[in-house]
Design a protein that fits this description.
- The complex is a heterodimer of chains A (36) and B (160).
- Chain A is mainly α and 36 residues long.
- Chain A has one domain.
- In chain B, strands 1-2-3-4-5-7-6 form a 7-stranded mixed sheet, sandwiched between helices.
- The N and C termini of chain B lie far apart (50 Å).
- By secondary structure, chain B is of the alpha+beta class.
- Classes of the chains: A mainly alpha (36), B alpha+beta (160).
- Chains A and B meet through α1 and β1 of A and β3, β4 and α1 of B.
């Protein structure tokens, strides 16, 4: 399930941010892109 | 006429905007193209769209129309690359996924100029409903094939 993977990633990243973490802490764990 | 909030590039990974009420939103995209090997028409341009509050009181944002305008504006920029495909999955960590879906639906109902097609889906995985939406540009030459693949993907979500 791609959707399960997306949801797990999203929830994990959100929890990291809520704890005061930064996205850059996770940059090697997820495929961040800047398409804008 | 209300304008979108200015989008700032805060780091190499994400964008952010700050509302008049002092709420800071992070927007980031994750590339999931590598997971779509079975769907060649999707394979190179699939990104998940994510928006999170990182500071401030969400209560002040409930009636702020500029937030929805900003989100739709982000997608208009995203779809300047016509072949891009976005998937939005409603965060369920606090069991407020239905409220998020309603808000997302409302933003697109009110501010989309018709150029973006939003197809909603529910993937049932291990007895859990995952609310999701596909966003594709109307001018994408593979628009109908992509929507079909998305529906197929939702239907197969529970396969073992």
């Amino acid at each position: 399930s791609i959707f399960k993977k997306m949801l797990e990633d999203k929830n994990a990243i959100n929890q990291h941010l809520q704890k005061g973490g930064k996205l850059k802490d996770l940059k090697n764990k997820y495929r961040f892109v800047k398409p804008l | 006429m209300l304008n979108p909030y200015p989008l700032q590039e805060t780091d190499e990974l994400s964008y952010q905007f700050v509302t008049d009420g002092g709420v800071t939103y992070h927007i980031y995209f994750l590339d999931y193209s590598y997971m779509f090997a079975d769907y060649p028409m999707l394979a190179n341009n699939v990104f998940s769209f994510n928006i999170d509050v990182v500071s401030g009181s969400v209560d002040t944002a409930l009636s702020d129309e500029r937030i929805g305008i900003t989100v739709v504006e982000v997608f208009k920029t995203f779809f300047k690359e016509r072949e891009n495909v976005a998937v939005y999955v409603c965060d369920s960590s606090d069991e407020r996924q239905l409220a998020r879906k309603r808000k997302f639906d409302f933003w697109f109902w009110k501010y989309n100029d018709g150029s973006i097609i939003k197809e909603d889906g529910v993937a049932i995985v291990e007895d859990v409903e995952i609310l999701n939406s596909l966003l594709v540009h109307r001018s994408n030459p593979l628009c109908m094939e992509i929507i079909f693949a998305f529906k197929d993907l939702n239907a197969r979500a529970g396969d073992k």
